[in-house]
Amino acid sequence: MRWFADRGCRVTGIDRDAAALASLAAVGETVVADIEGGPWPLAGRRFDAVVVTNYLWRPLMPTLIASIDEGGVLIYETFAHGNATVGKPSNPAFLLQPGELLQAVQGPPSRFLRVIAYEDGFLAAPERFVQRIAAVREAPRSADPVRYPL
Fold first, then answer.
1. Which of 48, 76, 89, 99 has its CA 20 to 30 A from that of 65?
2. 111-126: pLDDT as tens digits
3. Residues contacting 27, CB < 8 A, separation 6+
4. pLDDT at residue 17 above 80?
């Protein structure tokens, strides 16, 4: 949140730990919510950017993707299959399977998302397996192109 706020962005952070958010109250909007056990606290809101790091709750992915406004960007990075060989997390429930993040942005709630960059592999410092994606929500295209008389 601080990094984006320092660059002039309006930011919203969500965590179930109020203490973790306390130092960020002056940076932007903070929302204390258990997004795994309760309802999505930002229902109906859309954002210019959705940034997720080191977090995976598969049932929430469609909601996060649907929260990206037209022209907005998704930046998502978290741990991937193979990470158990180098450390935590090691529970498969918290590790993306090969290609899973790429597939997640190609489903129905992702309509009009264009992938700009995608990585799935090993990083050396610190050692970890990750998947990363950057995607942009493009404006829907009309089924009938506009034709101009010559």
1. 89
2. 678 999 999 999 999 9
3. 1, 2, 5, 11, 13
4. yes
Q: Please choose, from the candidates 105, 51, 97, the residue with its C-alpha nearest in 3D space to the C-alpha of residue 76.
A: 51
Phi, psi dihedrals of residue 23, rounded to the nearest 5°:
-75, -5
Quick check: helix, strand or coil at residue 88?
Answer: coil
Predicted TM-score (pTM) of this structure: 0.85
Q: How far apart are CA 61 and CA 101, in angstroms?
A: 9
CA distance 73 to 116: 10
**Contacts with 23 (C-beta within 8 Å, 6 or more apart), sequence order:** none
Compute the 3-state secondary structure of the chain and give helix, strand, coil in percent, each to the nearest 5: 20, 35, 45
Q: What CA–CA distance (Å, rounded) separates 25 from 2?
A: 11
- The DSSP secondary structure of 1-42, one letter per residue, reads -HHHHTTT---EEEES-HHHHHTTTTTSEEEE--TTTS--TT
* pLDDT(140) > 80: no
The first and second tokens of residue 148, run together, are: 């101009």
Q: Which of 2, 30, 4, 1 is nearest to 17 (CA)?
A: 30
